Amino acid sequence: METRLDRYEGAREKKLEQLKQLIKESKYIVFLGGAGVSTESGIPDFRSGEGIFNQESGLSYRPVDIISHSFFEEHPEEFFDFYRRKLLYPKARPNKAHRALVRLEKQGKLKATITQNIDNLHQMAGSTTTIELHGSVFRNYCVDCKEKYDLNFVLKTKGVPRCPKCGGIVRPDMILYEEHLEHENVDNAVKAIKKADLLIIGGTSLTVYPAATFAQFLKSDRVVIINKSSTYLDLQAMLTIHDSIGTVLDTVISKYIPKKKPETAKKTTKKKTTSKTSSAKKPAAGKTESKASAAKKPAAKSSSSKKPAAKTSSAKKPSTKASSAKKPAAKKAGTKKKD
Asked: Is 293's pLDDT higher than 70?
């Protein structure tokens, strides 16, 4: 779905230029993404016309009901049947959107990537700032002994995966409906958005909570929406682009990535220069010390030369004689009084 403005000739190009400028002048960018970020990697979203919730589940239950905590507890066989067929895409790889965000991160501008996805594609692309609100299918654990297992363990098993150690059910480390999000992940996401000077929201319809409310924590109005369908924030956002998120991000984010090797070479050069300088200072320091020590010897003699100064202090005695010389004058004055 597109906005009326997007249909004007040149409107899209102007919006892309505006987004480029916003990114250029921003220093603390946060990205909030949803299922639409991974659709270009072959993973379907949930709510679009071809999304998982509008597909046949292959069971007598609705997809939205199957991925709930109560269904997992009551029907584990059906849950894992649907889970393997509809939610696992081990061959999926990062697309243009994931790679563009990694470039932005390496440029020092993107400080946090908040995702509602469970596919691990941001990390595969090289992201080190990803906050997974809904967990990941690549992590699994035993509900009884908490032993951890990877995705391959679940893929190789049939039916309900069981822990080899205790026999407990091995479940995915993802948030199901009726379950609470990890407080730490929510707190980290909110903290990042509060610091942001630009929030880019992409590939999400903003209908899943609490992520749908995160924009309210931004201290400015610098919100950009990139999504094929409309969201409730479209009219409030500074900029709204209804287009492919991979195409948009790949276009507006510079291909430049700072190289680490030259920086390492510079550090090595600096170290060498420092070592030469420090070694060069040694003889200078030795000469200075010798000169200083030699200079101190005459200074020591000058301290002994203070004896004449002591004589001058004794030379003050004549002044006392002068004071005593006044006594006869006093006597004369006294004789005059007698007269």
From this structure: no
pLDDT at 261: 62
Q: Residues 134, 180, 183, 242: which is the catalytic one?
A: 134
Instruction: Say whether 134 is catalytic.
Output: yes
Range of the domain at 245: 1-43+90-134+180-284
Classify residue 325: in a domain, yes or no. no
**Chain segment 121-136, per-residue pLDDT in tens:** 999 999 999 999 999 9
Q: What angle do CA 111, 129, 180 make, to 5 degrees?
A: 110
- Encode pLDDT of 131-161 as tens digits: 999 999 999 999 999 999 999 999 999 999 9
Residue 214's nearest CA partner among 182, 240, 188 is 188
How, if at all, do strands 223-226 and 198-202 pair? Answer: parallel
CATH code where residue 126 lies: 3.40.50.1220
Note whether residue 208 is domain-resident: yes
The number of folded domains in the chain is: 1
